[in-house]
Amino acid sequence: MAKNNTNSKKGFTIIEVVLVLAIAGLIFLMVFVALPALQRSQRDTARRNDLARVDTSLVQYQTNNQGTNGGSNLPFDSKTYMGGINFASTNTAQINGQTVTVGGECGSRPTDNTGSSDAMACIFLRDYMNTGVAGTSKTNEFQDPAGVYYGMDIGQGAYSYKGTDMDFVIHVRTGAKCQGEVAVADTARHFAIIYRLEGAGTYCIDDQ
């Protein structure tokens, strides 16, 4: 009587091996595509939280500085304060192809209502957005999640992000409010804050 061969084993076919490798490759591809997008989303969430902190600090500044800047109680300036600058010395930077003065000694806050406010914007960034002792040890260390110090541009009126604008600069506009991704003119006491996110366009937050 013939015996059945119970030791014979059936191996994987070439098609099965290729199919398994294809599925594994697809999973790895999905991970490599999804992970950077998830990380960008997490950084943008942190940036939105940072802008909310700027919003809260501006409201606090406004409360603490009644009767300044024509009654708006808000800082504004014509300079851009770059990340990492020392608030006790004058600095220069290349902005849109031009050499401009940024930062510098804050001086004293004006006590009149004329709207002259160069010192006020500097003091806001130095004392409300950063920590440390005023002077040589106090620098702008408010930091983006990418590890780059935020710069800050504090101006007035309407604003929309331009492709030539510097990265990592928070744009604050007094006398403005958000309308989608841009700031439009509003009453003097209101403000809007704009920042370009990494993966979700331009973000605008205001005090309203």
Structure description:
- The protein has helices at residues 14-64, 118-128, and strands spanning 80-81, 90-95, 98-103, 151-156, 169-174, 176-179, 182-185, 191-196, 202-206.
- The chain has 208 residues and is of the alpha+beta class.
- It has one domain.
- The strands form three sheets. It has a five-stranded mixed β-sheet. It has a two-stranded antiparallel sheet with strand order 2-3. The protein has a two-stranded antiparallel ribbon with strand order 6-7.
Strand content: 15-25%
- Largest sheet features: 5 strands, mixed
Order of helix and strand elements from N to C terminus: HEEEHEEEEEE
Q: In whole angstroms, how far apart are the ends?
A: 94 Å
Number of helices: 2
The order of strands across the largest sheet is 1-4-5-8-9
**Based on helices, strands and strand pairing, what is the structural class?**
alpha+beta
Shape: elongated
- Give the total of domains: 1
Give the helix level as a range of percent: 25-40%
Query: What is the typical, i.e. mean, pLDDT?
Result: 76
Q: Uncertain regions: pLDDT < 50 for 5+ in a row?
A: 108-117
Rg is 27 Å
Describe the structure using short key phrases.
208 residues, alpha+beta, five-stranded mixed β-sheet, two-stranded antiparallel ribbon, 9 strands, 30% helix, elongated
